[in-house]
Structure formats: C-alpha cells, structure tokens
C-alpha cells in the first residue's frame, strides 16, 4: 500500500476534495493530513519525504504532523473525534489491503491509553481550577467601602454583602 492510496481513502472517508484537504490551514484539514501521514507511517515503509508527496508537504511538516497527531490532535477539541476516525480508517485500510499486516496494533492501544491519560489530566486541571475558585470564594470578604450615616456605619464587602453597625 502507498501513501497516495491512504490519501484517497481519507478523502473518501471525510468526503472532501484535494483543494480542501491539501491547501487549507484550518483545524479539520490539518488534522486530516496528520491522519494521512500517521496512517502512512503505520501501513507503508515510505520515508517522510515520500509520504509528503501525497499531501504536497515536505518531510519536516510530515514529521511534525505525525507528532502533533499523537500528542495534541487526539486530545484537543476538534471538528471530529480523531481517535474514532483513526480507528475507522485503520479498519478500512486493513480490509483494503490484508497484506499490510506489519502494522503495529500496540500503537493503537498506546494512542487509546494516551488519550485516556490526557482526559484524566484535563479533568485534573478543571478540578484544580474549581478548587481554586472555591478557595477564593471561601476567603474572608474584603471591605470595599465604609459610610457613616446618622450614628451608624454601613460596611460594603467585595462579595456583595454589607453590614450595618450602630456606633
């Protein structure tokens, strides 16, 4: 199997044309090109330069997109579920070329584990932010202003509360 074939399969899967896929810098086509590059590394023995010819990119861009797919795109919010698309495309490509059995199934499992790990990390960050917010809310309110009127003192706090004291 060649990266050009993988490019055709990905275009059919997402129902996009060459112009959208190969010349656009928006998130969706960039991630799609990353999928093509990663799948090409898994299913072919082509060099980064040879893979780049299928997507009209140089070898450094291919290297970057493969790393970005593994480390970033799978975990970021994107127009589609990148992990699911990768799994679907692996299945399609496996059916199309049963001779490409040298593909690394452990890599898929590693991506799923890494995906789960990043989800846990993201959840951890959100929980830390919530704890920080709750701690800030629990702090002693600060006095914003004090007004003296007819023998009373009106104190306004930064949390919107107020207190009236007789002098």
Description:
The chain is mostly helical. It has a domain at 3-103: Chromosomal Replication Initiator Protein Dnaa, Chain: A (Orthogonal Bundle). It contains 7 helices and 3 strands; from the N terminus they run αααααααβββ. It has a 3-stranded antiparallel beta sheet, with no helix packed on it. A hairpin with a 2-residue loop joins β1 and β2 (152-157). The longest helix has 34 residues, at 105-138. The relative contact order is 0.10.
How far apart the termini lie comes to 88 Å
Task: Please state the oligomeric state of the protein chains shown.
Answer: single chain
Helix segment tally: 7
**Averaged pLDDT:** 78
CATH hierarchy class name of the domain at 3-103: Mainly Alpha
The biggest sheet, with number of strands, parallel, antiparallel or mixed sense and barrel status, is: 3 strands, antiparallel
Query: Helix- and strand-based class?
Result: mainly alpha
Keywords:
Chromosomal Replication Initiator Protein Dnaa, Chain: A; mainly alpha; 167 residues
Layout of helices and strands, plus pairs?
Blueprint: H1 3-14, H2 18-23, H3 27-43, H4 48-55, H5 59-73, H6 82-96, H7 105-138, E1 143-149, E2 152-157, E3 162-166
Antiparallel strand pairs: 1-2, 2-3
